């Protein structure tokens, strides 16, 4: 059978694998919700203020830099597969590409996108 | 073409099924379901065994005794834990985003199970040997980020939200060096097929050809699977349990099932990509070598985890971007030059 069809069948089975114990546990577990029990945890006392707090902007910067690099790795993989058949041209091309990548990394570094403030 | 006990076992099972059913596509379907069930069982068993192993090894390193009451020498401890988690009340906290919250542990387990399809356990014993194997594997592994974020975002708890955000920052930061490190292997092999990658190591293991990539991979694997010393996602002393602070009972257990399954996966991946997979001296069959190497790798990762103190979140993020990524880029360059020189000579 084709590898991708196998993966599809395995995906469906893997989806059922965690659902089954949750259903079984739902049948046998006690259900006694009380007002205090359902409060989100915050060091044992009542929560203070809004729970959906704002998150640090630094996370967003990391995500942006990641996006750039990840797209570039996707482009580099086909090149890596065919590399040993392509010879000097591929090597020079790779030097240029990795050079551009390095400049990008250097720019993000200088702009402070990589440091946690 | 293929040799080995496991492969011939599979072939004889296929012959028996063919003689019983006859329709080729049904036989294929049945074989796939049987193999997938075995893989899922391996995953569940590994989680049970490693939970106990983790506690025993941790206790040994910290000069304690560890669990020793349930069964001989505490052997049945994880079974008892599982039964206990089964009948714990499933507390649904107030103000959660119900759908995301329920789906998060389920979706977390799917990618950790799915990557077992790409592991060559022995010569020819691999569930889905697709031609973009390694690439698909990396893609599926990175899907674990999303459930963590879902769980953290939907739990309506400050710890969960911060934990979820940390997961994303950490996994994104270390995924780029990991992908670049594995690129060296692809360049040498000239293929993304997992079986081809193991086949290419029949003479020399990639740990010899790619020592730099191996070191980068060890660090990034620990980070991607949230193992200590890089478990800032669930740093108990900082943010309680990170994205799964609000989960109880079986749902909580699923998070840990995924964690221990990931521990096994990084052991298997280290073996497959750098330590020659099922290759080894002839006196033991291939799958024995595979499991010996894998378990040694897992032991190594646990040892590292219980020896070093937890990294701080800011130093960890800058380490990934400012140290590992440049080294990984240099590794790609060195590999490129190396292959070119080797081909010219």
Automatic annotation (TrEMBL), chain A:
Compartment annotation: Cell membrane; Membrane
GO molecular function (one): NADH dehydrogenase (quinone) (non-electrogenic) activity
A Pfam family assignment: Oxidored_q4
Gene3D superfamilies given in the database record: NADH:ubiquinone/plastoquinone oxidoreductase, chain 3
Gene name of the record: nuoA
Oligomer status and interactors: NDH-1 is composed of 14 different subunits. Subunits NuoA, H, J, K, L, M, N constitute the membrane sector of the complex.
Similarity comment: Belongs to the complex I subunit 3 family.
Entry keyword set: Cell membrane, Membrane, NAD, Quinone, Translocase, Transmembrane, Transmembrane helix, Transport
PANTHER family the UniProt entry points to: NADH-UBIQUINONE OXIDOREDUCTASE CHAIN 3
Residues passing through the membrane, by range: 6-28, 59-80, 86-109
Principal subcellular localization: membrane
Function according to Swiss-Prot or TrEMBL: NDH-1 shuttles electrons from NADH, via FMN and iron-sulfur (Fe-S) centers, to quinones in the respiratory chain. The immediate electron acceptor for the enzyme in this species is believed to be a menaquinone. Couples the redox reaction to proton translocation (for every two electrons transferred, four hydrogen ions are translocated across the cytoplasmic membrane), and thus conserves the redox energy in a proton gradient.
Catalytic activities: a quinone + NADH + 5 H(+)(in) = a quinol + NAD(+) + 4 H(+)(out)
Name of the protein in question: NADH-quinone oxidoreductase subunit A
Keyword flag GTP-binding: no
Annotated source species: Anaerovibrio lipolyticus
Lineage: superkingdom: Bacteria
GO CC annotations, alphabetized: NADH dehydrogenase complex; plasma membrane
UniProtKB/TrEMBL annotation, chain B:
Reactions catalysed, as given in the entry: a quinone + NADH + 5 H(+)(in) = a quinol + NAD(+) + 4 H(+)(out)
UniProt KW Nucleus keyword: no
EC number(s) recorded for this UniProt protein: 7.1.1.-
One of the protein's GO biological processes: aerobic respiration
Membrane topology classification: Multi-pass membrane protein
Pfam families assigned to the protein according to its UniProt record, in alphabetical order: NADHdh (PF00146)
Enzyme class, UniProt record, top EC level: translocase
Compartment annotation: Cell membrane; Membrane
Keywords: Cell membrane, Membrane, NAD, Quinone, Translocase, Transmembrane, Transmembrane helix, Ubiquinone
Keyword Transmembrane: yes
Primary role: NDH-1 shuttles electrons from NADH, via FMN and iron-sulfur (Fe-S) centers, to quinones in the respiratory chain. The immediate electron acceptor for the enzyme in this species is believed to be ubiquinone. Couples the redox reaction to proton translocation (for every two electrons transferred, four hydrogen ions are translocated across the cytoplasmic membrane), and thus conserves the redox energy in a proton gradient. This subunit may bind ubiquinone.
Assembly and binders: NDH-1 is composed of 14 different subunits. Subunits NuoA, H, J, K, L, M, N constitute the membrane sector of the complex.
HAMAP family from the UniProt entry: NDH1_NuoH
Family: Belongs to the complex I subunit 1 family.
NCBIfam families for the chain: PRK06076.1-2 (NF004741)
Protein name: NADH-quinone oxidoreductase subunit H
Species this protein is from: Anaerovibrio lipolyticus DSM 3074
Lineage: Bacteria, Bacillati, Bacillota, Negativicutes, Selenomonadales
């Amino acid at each position: 059978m084709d590898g991708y069809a196998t993966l599809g069948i395995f995906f469906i089975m893997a989806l059922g694998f965690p659902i089954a114990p949750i259903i079984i546990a739902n049948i046998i577990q006690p259900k006694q919700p009380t007002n205090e029990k359902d409060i989100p945890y915050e060091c044992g006392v009542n929560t203070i203020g809004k729970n959906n707090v704002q998150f640090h902007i630094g996370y967003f910067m990391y995500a942006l830099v990641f996006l750039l690099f990840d797209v570039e790795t996707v482009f580099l993989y086909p090149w890596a597969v065919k590399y040993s058949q392509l010879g000097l041209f591929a090597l020079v091309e790779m030097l240029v590409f990795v050079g551009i990548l390095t400049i990008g990394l250097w720019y993000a570094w200088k702009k402070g996108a990589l440091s946690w403030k | 073409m293929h040799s080995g006990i496991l492969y011939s076992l599979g072939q004889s099972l296929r012959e028996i099924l063919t003689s019983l059913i006859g329709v080729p596509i049904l036989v294929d379907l049945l074989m796939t379901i049987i193999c997938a069930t075995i893989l899922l069982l391996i995953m569940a068993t590994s989680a049970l065994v490693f939970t106990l192993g983790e506690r025993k090894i941790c206790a040994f390193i910290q000069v304690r005794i560890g669990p020793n009451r349930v069964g001989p020498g505490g052997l049945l401890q994880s079974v008892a834990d599982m039964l206990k988690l089964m009948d714990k009340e499933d507390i649904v906290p107030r103000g959660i985003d119900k759908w995301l919250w329920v789906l998060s542990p389920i979706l977390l387990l799917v990618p950790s199970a799915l990557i077992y399809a790409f592991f060559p356990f022995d010569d020819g014993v691999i569930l889905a040997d697709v031609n973009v194997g390694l690439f698909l594997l990396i893609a599926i592994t990175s899907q674990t980020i999303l459930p963590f974020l879902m769980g953290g975002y939907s739990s309506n708890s400050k710890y969960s939200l911060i934990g979820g955000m940390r997961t994303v920052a950490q996994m994104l930061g270390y995924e780029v060096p990991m992908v670049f490190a594995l690129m060296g292997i692809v360049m040498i092999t000239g293929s993304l097929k997992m079986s081809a990658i193991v086949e290419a190591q029949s003479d020399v293991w990639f740990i010899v050809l790619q020592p730099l990539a191996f070191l980068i991979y060890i660090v990034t694997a620990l980070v991607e699977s949230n193992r200590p010393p890089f478990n800032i996602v669930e740093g108990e002393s900082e943010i309680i349990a990170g994205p799964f602070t609000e989960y109880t009972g079986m749902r909580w257990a699923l998070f840990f099932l995924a964690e221990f399954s990931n521990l096994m996966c990084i052991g298997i991946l280290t073996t497959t990509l750098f330590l020659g997979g099922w290759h080894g001296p002839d006196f033991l069959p291939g799958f024995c070598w595979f499991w010996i190497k894998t378990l040694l790798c897992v032991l190594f990762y646990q040892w590292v985890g219980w020896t070093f103190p937890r990294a701080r979140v800011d130093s960890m993020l800058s380490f990934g971007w400012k140290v590992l990524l440049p080294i990984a880029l240099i590794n790609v360059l060195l590999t490129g030059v190396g292959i070119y020189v080797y081909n010219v000579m």
